[in-house]
Amino acid sequence: MPSKLQPGSNAPKFDLPSTSGENISLSDLKGKKVVLYFYPRDMTPGCTREACAFRDDHLKLQKMGAVVLGVSKDKIATHLKFREKESLPFDLLTDADNAVAKAYGAYGEKVMYGKKVLGTIRSTFLIDENGKIGAAWSPVKVDGHNEQVLASLGGDAPSTAAAKKSRAKGK
Q1: The domain 23-168 belongs to what CATH superfamily?
Q2: By the 8 A CB rule, do 133 and 118 touch?
Q3: Percent of the chain having pLDDT more than 70?
Q4: Catalytic amino acids?
Q5: Run of H or E residues at 16
C-alpha cells in the first residue's frame, strides 16, 4: 500500500471516464484547484450526504477557484443516475479497478461492521494549481467535512450545507 500523501507531495496523475462523456485527467486541470474525493458507492446514505454537501457548497467552491470531482468504482450509468437524482453539478469519475484510489491511498483495508475488509477508504484531497497536495483527509467523517474543505481553501463563512442544517434544527 502506498504511504498516505502529505501536503506538498505531487498528486498522482489520473485519467478517468467521467459523467461529462469524456475522460478527465489531472493534467487537464493544471492551473486549477481540485477537490478530489473518493467515496465507496453511489446512492448510499453516507455517500449521498457527502455529495449533497459538496453540491450545496458548489458555488462557494467555484468562487474559490476549485473544481470538485467525485471518484468511485461505480459505472458511468450509475454515476449519471446519482448525479441526476441528487442534482449534482460536478462530474463523477469511474475508477473501475481502483488503481487511482490505490495511488492516493484511498483503497485498502478498513473495518466495516467490526470486520476487516478491502474497499474504498472515504478520502478527500485538495490539489493545488501546480498538481501538489494542499490538504488531505483520510478517513473522512462525512458530517462537517465540507466545512474542512472550505476552510482549507480559505473560506471563513459557514457553508451552505451547514446553514441549511442549522435552519432545519431551528437555530
Answers
A1: Glutaredoxin (3.40.30.10)
A2: no
A3: 88
A4: 47
A5: strand 15-17
